[in-house]
Design a protein that fits this description.
The chain is mainly beta and 110 residues long. The chain has strands spanning 9-21, 27-43, 55-68, 73-83, 100-109. It has a 5-stranded antiparallel beta sheet, with no helix packed on it. Strand 1 (9-21) and strand 2 (27-43) form a beta hairpin.
Length: 110
Amino acid sequence: AGNTIDASLTYLSVPVLARFNIFPVLVKPYIGAGIEYSTLLDVGSDFDKDDFSSSDFSLVANAGVDFALEVIKLEADLRYVYGLTNIIADPIGDAKITNNSLQLTVGIIF
């Protein structure tokens, strides 16, 4: 078993995604994929910001559905982000840590 490290890292992320609507009707399911660039803003833990890489590149896959109502549109999106960058600034040996996340977004569009 490996060691456990607890670190809270804050990133500003910019995804670039291609989206493909499956059925162009009132209920529109879709799938998508793309890339994401993130820059490290803060390290809220026992570590210093210099311990981590300042940038991170990831692959993104998502799926969701839009519901078109009379006045508004509702959207639900599930996204998986798979980190490609080793976020350890100076790794020892083959040590590697990557960012991976599962994100759920629910929105209302006016």
